[in-house]
């Protein structure tokens, strides 16, 4: 989710957590030779790039500074929530301290402080602003807060995984799983329908019990 916020530092930690998870699953597959691990994504998000050109009037240096990202100690989401929830009289000092301690940024401006001191409830604007403070200094660029058309990686490990080498349409992954598990999707669909072809619409309201409102802004304002 960090890519939606263009939060470079948190994005790194999400990738590291992903690697740890994959290693754990690989160990399971190794001990269960009749299984397969598949890892892919439905889309790329954020359009990350390096060597960001902050000033169009200057010739780019084609650099980026990972040490800026390394200094970050919390996500832009949590920091924005923390700052917006702080209501004591020393909020200005609190914001400045947050820049230094949580983002590792000392060269912030009065405008930065003023923007984060706006008396408003937690919102994406503050989250995005904090993330950009890091990205701009690290010379990390982003093309969007949404999805891109970039091809996503496909990883497979274990039994029959050689059939997933190369480029594939996304529906090929589903077909592979169906064949691997010996599924009869038609009978499953019939069972789910139970004579009612709109079962998925009737059950749509059931998801309202889940706390997913905070994700709506990532999907054009629609509830999932």
General description of the model:
- The chain is mainly α and 224 residues long.
- Helices cover 45% and strands 7% of the residues.
- The protein contains ten helices and six strands; from the N terminus they run H-H-E-E-E-H-H-H-H-H-E-E-E-H-H-H.
- Strands 1-6 form a two-stranded antiparallel ribbon. Strands 2-5 form a two-stranded antiparallel ribbon.
- Helix 4 packs across helix 7.
- The longest helix is centred in the N-terminal third of the chain and has 24 residues.
- The protein is elongated.
What does this entry show, briefly?
The protein has helices spanning 2-5, 8-31, 66-70, 76-84, 91-102, 110-116, 124-138, 170-181, 185-193, 199-202, and strands spanning 36-39, 44-45, 49-50, 140-141, 147-148, 155-158.
Primary descriptors:
45% helix; mainly alpha; 224 residues; 10 helices; disordered C terminus
| Beta-strand percentage range | 5-15%
What is the number of helical segments per DSSP (H or I, 4+ residues)? 10
Total count of strands: 6
> How are helices and strands ordered from N to C?
HHEEEHHHHHEEEHHH
Question: What is the helix content?
Answer: 40-55%
Mean pLDDT: 88
Rg result: 22 Å
Give the N-to-C terminal Cα separation.
15 Å
Strand arrangement within the widest β-sheet reads: 1-6
Shape: elongated
Largest sheet: 2 strands, antiparallel
Return the structural class: mainly alpha
Would you identify the regions where 5 or more consecutive residues have pLDDT less than 50?
Answer: 203-212, 220-224
């Amino acid at each position: 989710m960090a890519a939606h916020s263009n939060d470079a530092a948190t994005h790194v930690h999400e990738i590291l957590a992903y690697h740890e998870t994959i290693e754990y699953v690989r160990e399971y597959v190794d001990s269960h030779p009749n299984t397969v691990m598949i890892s892919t994504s439905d889309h790329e998000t954020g359009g990350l790039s390096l060597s960001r050109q902050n000033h169009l009037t200057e010739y780019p240096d084609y650099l980026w500074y990972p040490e800026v990202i390394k200094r970050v100690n919390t996500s832009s989401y949590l920091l924005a929530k923390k700052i917006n929830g702080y209501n004591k009289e020393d909020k200005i000092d609190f914001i400045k301290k947050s820049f230094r301690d949580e983002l590792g940024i000392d060269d912030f401006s009065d405008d930065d402080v003023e923007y984060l001191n706006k008396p408003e409830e937690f919102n994406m604007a503050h989250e995005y602003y904090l993330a950009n403070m890091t990205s701009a200094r690290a010379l990390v660029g982003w093309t969007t807060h949404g999805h891109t058309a970039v091809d996503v990686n496909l990883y497979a490990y274990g039994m029959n995984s050689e059939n997933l080498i190369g480029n594939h349409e996304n529906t090929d992954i589903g077909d592979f799983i169906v064949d691997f598990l010996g599924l009869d999707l038609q009978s499953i669909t019939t069972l789910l329908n139970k004579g009612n072809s709109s079962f998925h619409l009737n059950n749509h309201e059931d998801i309202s019990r889940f706390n997913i409102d905070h994700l709506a802004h990532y999907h054009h304002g629609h509830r999932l």
